[in-house]
Amino acid sequence: MAEEWAGPVSVEEMYGDWDYEAAKAALERSLDPRPSASLLDTIGSLGLGEDAVVLDIGGREGADCLRMAERFGCRAVLVDPVTANLNRGREIVAEHDYGHLVDLRLGAIEEIPAEDDAFDLVLSRDMMGHIEDIDAALAECVRVLKPNGYMVIHEVFATPLLEPREAAILYANTATVPERMSVSGFEDAVQSAGFRVESIDLVGSEWAEASQEAGTAPNYMLQVARLRRGKAQLVEELGEVPYRAMYGNALWSIYQMIGKLESRVYVLGRAGF
Length: 273
Known about the structure:
By secondary structure, this protein is α/β, with parallel strands linked by helices. Helix content is about 45%, strand content about 20%.
């Protein structure tokens, strides 16, 4: 989307003879954004069946593992480095109808607790931004992926609209490694690790739009206003880290909706197969 115009809008043009109500009505029309569940459609297009074994690396409490198990009948392994995530995940998995198909393991992407060529698919959803050693991480994903398997990576990247000061605040509050926010840097690392890029889906702001339209996400703009205006009280009530995490997460979603961040889904195969 072009952000530059021939010149500034004048006062006469700003308040001139154009139909404000019609413009407002146009903005009330949905552009039919895809929801985040469309990620399962991408995974489904790769031919997963009941005999498949998938890895969700950094999958937190196992929501995506359970969705894949339910939809495809496959076995799923969740590996996450945060013990609290796994503790919550075990409770959720135990109560789910397809929980018997899901295995939860403590581990990190740089040293995945699995044998070589173990998985038909590796899923990484919005977690590469936390990884310092991207080369080691991707090399491990190649190692545990079957020769004809696929890796699906959902990641969010910075766009030229994100100002340096905004980026510094955002990354500090979301445990984000700044180098991971570069599309070109990420794609270079992917190819160096031994992957080939099968497809790139530029999701952009769609998932964030869809969650707002469906009412399944908070009003992040209102959250930021409250976090800023009530900072002293909220820091005392919540603590510094929860305050900063909530502030960073709200900005993360807002920045996706206004084009400072963009969401992408990559489908990768092992080079040479």
